[in-house]
Design brief:
By secondary structure, this protein is mostly helical. Helix content is 59%, strand content 7%.
Protein backbone atom coordinates (compact mmCIF):
# COMPACT_ATOMS: atom_id res chain seq x y z
CA UNK A 1 0.00 0.00 0.00
CA UNK A 2 1.46 3.43 -0.88
CA UNK A 3 2.42 5.61 2.08
CA UNK A 4 -0.38 8.12 1.44
CA UNK A 5 -3.01 5.39 1.31
CA UNK A 6 -1.57 3.63 4.38
CA UNK A 7 -1.40 6.91 6.28
CA UNK A 8 -4.99 7.74 5.32
CA UNK A 9 -6.12 4.30 6.47
CA UNK A 10 -4.43 4.81 9.86
CA UNK A 11 -5.90 8.32 10.11
CA UNK A 12 -9.37 6.94 9.32
CA UNK A 13 -9.02 4.31 12.05
CA UNK A 14 -7.83 6.66 14.79
CA UNK A 15 -8.76 10.28 14.16
CA UNK A 16 -12.17 11.55 15.24
CA UNK A 17 -13.65 15.01 15.63
CA UNK A 18 -14.91 16.17 19.01
CA UNK A 19 -18.13 17.82 17.83
CA UNK A 20 -18.23 19.97 20.96
CA UNK A 21 -15.03 21.57 19.65
CA UNK A 22 -15.28 21.51 15.84
CA UNK A 23 -12.30 22.16 13.66
CA UNK A 24 -8.71 21.07 14.10
CA UNK A 25 -8.73 22.06 17.76
CA UNK A 26 -11.19 19.23 18.43
CA UNK A 27 -9.38 16.50 16.54
CA UNK A 28 -8.71 13.50 18.78
CA UNK A 29 -7.31 10.02 18.76
CA UNK A 30 -10.49 8.06 19.30
CA UNK A 31 -12.42 9.99 21.91
CA UNK A 32 -9.57 10.51 24.32
CA UNK A 33 -6.43 12.42 23.48
CA UNK A 34 -6.28 15.60 21.41
CA UNK A 35 -3.92 15.38 18.46
CA UNK A 36 -2.41 18.75 19.39
CA UNK A 37 -1.54 17.32 22.82
CA UNK A 38 0.38 14.45 21.24
CA UNK A 39 2.13 16.76 18.79
CA UNK A 40 2.94 19.32 21.48
CA UNK A 41 4.33 16.76 23.93
CA UNK A 42 6.56 14.74 21.62
CA UNK A 43 10.11 14.84 22.95
CA UNK A 44 12.65 14.72 20.12
CA UNK A 45 15.36 13.70 22.57
CA UNK A 46 13.77 10.31 23.24
CA UNK A 47 15.38 7.34 21.51
CA UNK A 48 11.96 6.37 20.19
CA UNK A 49 9.62 9.39 20.51
CA UNK A 50 6.68 7.44 19.10
CA UNK A 51 6.97 4.66 21.67
CA UNK A 52 7.47 7.20 24.47
CA UNK A 53 4.23 8.99 23.53
CA UNK A 54 2.37 5.72 23.11
CA UNK A 55 3.37 4.64 26.62
CA UNK A 56 2.72 8.06 28.16
CA UNK A 57 -0.84 8.14 26.84
CA UNK A 58 -1.53 4.39 26.99
CA UNK A 59 -2.01 4.27 23.23
CA UNK A 60 -0.79 1.86 20.58
CA UNK A 61 2.06 3.07 18.38
CA UNK A 62 -0.34 3.19 15.45
CA UNK A 63 -2.37 5.89 17.21
CA UNK A 64 0.73 8.07 17.59
CA UNK A 65 1.53 7.44 13.91
CA UNK A 66 -2.02 8.59 13.13
CA UNK A 67 -1.45 11.84 15.04
CA UNK A 68 1.80 12.47 13.18
CA UNK A 69 0.27 11.61 9.81
CA UNK A 70 -2.69 13.90 10.51
CA UNK A 71 -0.34 16.69 11.61
CA UNK A 72 1.71 16.33 8.42
CA UNK A 73 -1.49 17.00 6.47
CA UNK A 74 -2.65 19.81 8.77
CA UNK A 75 0.39 21.70 10.09
CA UNK A 76 -1.88 24.65 10.89
CA UNK A 77 -2.81 22.80 14.09
CA UNK A 78 -0.05 24.78 15.80
CA UNK A 79 -1.56 28.07 14.68
CA UNK A 80 -4.92 27.05 16.12
CA UNK A 81 -3.28 26.51 19.51
CA UNK A 82 -1.03 29.59 19.30
CA UNK A 83 -3.20 31.52 21.74
CA UNK A 84 -2.18 29.07 24.47
CA UNK A 85 1.54 29.58 23.88
CA UNK A 86 3.72 32.63 24.19
CA UNK A 87 5.91 33.42 21.16
CA UNK A 88 9.03 31.74 22.56
CA UNK A 89 7.14 28.58 23.52
CA UNK A 90 5.57 28.37 20.08
CA UNK A 91 8.97 28.74 18.39
CA UNK A 92 10.39 26.05 20.67
CA UNK A 93 7.45 23.77 19.91
CA UNK A 94 7.94 24.23 16.16
CA UNK A 95 11.68 23.57 16.50
CA UNK A 96 11.00 20.42 18.53
CA UNK A 97 8.54 19.20 15.92
CA UNK A 98 11.12 19.62 13.17
CA UNK A 99 13.61 17.61 15.24
CA UNK A 100 10.99 14.97 15.95
CA UNK A 101 10.08 14.74 12.28
CA UNK A 102 13.68 14.02 11.37
CA UNK A 103 14.22 11.53 14.16
CA UNK A 104 10.99 9.58 13.80
CA UNK A 105 11.17 9.32 10.03
CA UNK A 106 13.46 6.32 10.39
CA UNK A 107 11.14 4.86 13.04
CA UNK A 108 8.16 5.37 10.74
CA UNK A 109 9.99 3.79 7.83
CA UNK A 110 11.02 0.78 9.94
CA UNK A 111 7.56 0.42 11.43
CA UNK A 112 5.65 0.69 8.17
CA UNK A 113 5.66 -3.07 8.07
CA UNK A 114 4.01 -3.07 11.53
CA UNK A 115 0.90 -1.32 10.25
CA UNK A 116 -1.93 -3.83 10.04
CA UNK A 117 -3.05 -4.61 6.49
CA UNK A 118 -6.21 -2.92 5.39
Amino acid sequence: MPDDARDQDIINRWITVDHRHPGIDGVRLGYRTHVWAIIGQIDPDQDDPIEAMAQAHDLPREAVFAALAWYQRHPDILASRAATYDANSLLQLEANLLRVKRRVQTVIDKSSEEAPPS
